[in-house]
Design brief:
The complex is a heterodimer of chains A (305) and B (390). Chain A has 305 residues and is mainly α. Chain A is built from 14 helices and 2 strands; from the N terminus they run H-H-E-E-H-H-H-H-H-H-H-H-H-H-H-H. Chain B is an alpha+beta fold. In chain B, strand 7, helix 6 and strand 8 form a beta-alpha-beta unit. Chain B is elongated. Classes of the chains: A mainly alpha (305), B alpha+beta (390).
Chain lengths: 305, 390
Amino acid sequence: MSIAAAIAETADEGPKGPPPKRRGRFIPYLLMLPGALWLGIFFLVPLVTLFLTSLQTPVAGGDVGQFEQTFNFANYPETLTDPNYYVPLFRSFLYSASATILALLIGYPLAYGIAFKAGRFRNVLLVMVIAPFFVSFILRTIAWRQILADEGPVVAVLRVIGLVGPTGGVYPSAIAVVAGLTYNFLPFMTLPIYASLERVDHRLVEAAGDLYASPWTGFRKVTLPLSMPGVVAGTLLTFIPAAGDYVNAALLGTPKNTMIGNRIEFTFLSVNDYPTAAVLSFILMASILIMVLLYVRRVGTEDLV
Amino acid sequence: MARATDVTKAQGDLYLERLTKSFGDFVAVDDLSLTVPQGSFFALLGPSGCGKTTTLRMVAGLEDPTAGRIKIGEADITELKPFRRPVNTVFQNYALFPHMDIYENVAFGLRRRGIKDVKTQVMEALELIELAQVAKRKPAQLSGGQQQRVALARAIVNRPAVLLLDEPLGALDLKLRRQMQLELKRIQTEVGLTFIHVTHDQEEAMTMADTVAVMNKGVIEQLGAPTDLYESPKTAFVANFLGQSNLFPAAVLEVDGEDIVLEDSDGRYRMPMNRVAPSVSPTRGGRVLVGVRPEKIHIERLAESDATPADGNYVDGTVRSSSFMGVSTQYEVATAGGEIISVFAQNLSARDLLSEGDPVRLTWAPRHGFVLNGSEDMNAGVEAVTAAAG
């Protein structure tokens, strides 16, 4: 049967089959089903379990790690006022904010260069931005130990310029942790910014130049505001996972550089204090959520195109 | 800095001197010289790819000329960056800043030049385009016609020495386009700035401009007032691109005082010497193209008794097809010599309609014809019209 005949036949079938309107109504729900199931089983259910865990109390006279289900909301203020917990929490936000700013300072020019100046090398450069993902996250982070080691090139250069003393180093330290975070999340910053820069109509930049804006003013008044959706997406995609990260602090920092992720891991798996670890997880989630809401409201993306 | 400031305030006629722009092997604009008098409405008309937009972009500073100079009055602006030129552009797609409201869009140029109190000027510009009420809206909330006017206000508010319009009405529908043509003309008269209008639409160019330059393949084919271009085209391209023309080959018979006499297989034609394009050498036997506009031809049924008309040129033929268009009827007439001539006849009364196969006589006044160089391509500009319309 020819294609044309097949099409004609399908078209003929139309009126005879069930009215397309009724069938079409269920298709969106059907399409959403796998995703909804996934979220339900792997996000909603664990979230509820975790919340219940956060309200448990130790069994009197029981073993380590033996808890009973109660509704002890006092777990929250107790944990929050303990410097063993709020200091790493604060440190997490400090590190991830620093890493986000650094990634923005590196990622924006990079995305700009790829979008506007790369010409036919654009796709090659994009692949290079993503290329590190072909190597495991842990391996890449461990590699930073070599890069930042006392015998490594970075420290050698820093010693020559005098930024660190003749016996000083950068690994392990807060700087190494922030460097690792910045490096690991850079693609998440660069790609959304690239995507929104690529959509900026170059004729708008020409129009700005035509209306007496120098290239720098044109960038400030036209290109930058139009790329803000990408900047917002990039900073969120960097800040949120970086705040909960514990690999970089574990591999590149000292015990003084522990982040809240390390604390949660330790409390869950080594101390076996499940309620406290659950409380910390919830506090982390809540504080990120509040910060993100404030940030998005402040930057105001709905005003943008 | 002082010198640059002087240049940005330059006033006067715009001079393009031997301007050339090549992209690799392709010469987009070829040794083009042009003077646009201050305060005039000037149209650059031509099919796509003729170099008109490239010329405009060179004036705006968005392209660097390969050779040649651009001057406004005494000031040479060839080397100036776009943002230092006293030139503003209305872009084809308007290029309004989507993240700013209409007020800020219009204020953009003023603010960049460090003018503190922009309100009066912005509101004046918005009133000129009759859109003061939408000052706080975003461009996306405006119709195409409104966006077009805002783009105009955004440029005009700066009172540039030269305002460039790049196919400004191209995206509008026909009715709105007609309305905007009149509007643009009114605004230009009101503000008295030099407008350079690039378009492929001959009607648009002729409606608005004082002077039209017809461009083809990087050079100006002919420059003049719209009526001059239409009535006395100097090349086959202009004859075909501006309106419609019947062109058919003939040979020079003689020059008889003030007149030239031509001949082809259908007969003889007499035309005043001032209807002959300068590129024609009126020597006996020289090849020429005879041109006459379809609406200048008078068509009537041929009767046996008809004598040769004393005054005027004529051709006999038979109606090959006729299409009724309401206000007029278009006939295609085949002559004995094998030419196809189209004729627009006003529909004065329905009785006059001719039908296929009718023998007819076509006559036209000698001063309504024109004579072009015979070495030109008769169909030059015909495809360009079709392409430009598409």
